[in-house]
Amino acid sequence: MLSRRYIPGPPLSDFIGCLWYWEGAPGPHTRERLLPNGEAAVIFNLLDEPIRIYNAQDIARYADYGNAVFSGARSDCFVIDANQQERVIGIQFLPGGAFPFFRMPVSEMEGASVSLDDLWPRQAAEIREQLLAAPDVDTMLYTLERCLLQRFVRPPELHDAVTFALRHIGGSATIGKIAAITDRIGLSSRRFIQVFHQQVGLTPKAFCRVRRFQRVLQSVHRVGHVDWAQVALDCGYYDQAHCIHDFRAFSGLTPSQYHSQKTDHLNHVPIVQ
Questions:
Q1: For residue 94, what is the DSSP state?
Q2: DSSP state of 38
Q3: Do residues 6 and 38 make contact, with C-beta atoms less than 8 angstroms apart?
Q4: How far apart are CA 44 and CA 48, in angstroms?
Q5: Using one digit for the tens of pLDDT, what is the confidence trace for 24-51?
Q6: CB-count burial class (<10 Å; 0-12, 13-18, 19+) for 57
C-alpha cells in the first residue's frame, strides 16, 4: 500500500484541500459508500478501466465515467467500486474551491458525477498522460499541481460574501447562523443564496446541514462508546431524533450502523454483501 497527501502552495491552497495518491491491492469488500462532505473532487484512475459509480439505493444501477471523473458537492451518498482503487490520484477541493476551474457554475453539477473529458475536453486526457509519464509519486503530485495552475478559467477568487459565509459557518455549522450572516454581507437573502449556490454547489442551508453532519462523524470516528444524545446537542441538533433523521438522509445509515462499520477513512463505509 502506498498513500500520499500533498497540500499545494498559493494560490491553489485557497481552493484545494489536498492532492492525494493511493495505490494498493483490493480490500475484502468490493463496494464502498462515500458520504457527503459538501466538497467537490476529481479522481483519475491510473489503470486502464473506466471509473464506475453506483446508485446508493440500488447498487445494481451504475454508470461509467471514463478514466477521470468530477464529483460535485453533494448532500447524499454514492457507492464506488473498491476494486477500482488500486492506483488512483485525486484533487480534493475546499468548499467552493472548484468554481474557478470550470466554466459552468458548479451548482449545475450538484450531486452529480461528470466525466472530466466533458468538462475539460482534451485537457483531461493530456493531464492523465502526464501523470502516467511521471517517474514517481512526488513528481506526479507536482505535475498535477502545475496542471491545475494552468486550469484557472475564472479569476482565482470567490465572491466576498461567499468567502465571508464559508469562514463564519466554519466548524459550528448551525443553520441559525445563516440568517445572521446575511445581515452582515450587504446582499439580499435571495441574491446571497444564488451566488453561494453557484460557487459552492449547494445552497447555504444544505451546505450547513452537511457540515453539521460531518461534525458528527468527526466526533465519533475515533471514539469507542458514544453518547449519541450528547453528540447531537454538541453538534447543533435539537435532539437525538433530529440527528438520526439527518444522518440517515445523508448516509443511508443510522448513526449506530456507521459507528459499527466505520473504517480509517472518515467518509468511506464498506458495503458487506
A1: P
A2: S
A3: no
A4: 11
A5: 866 677 899 999 999 999 999 999 999 9
A6: exposed
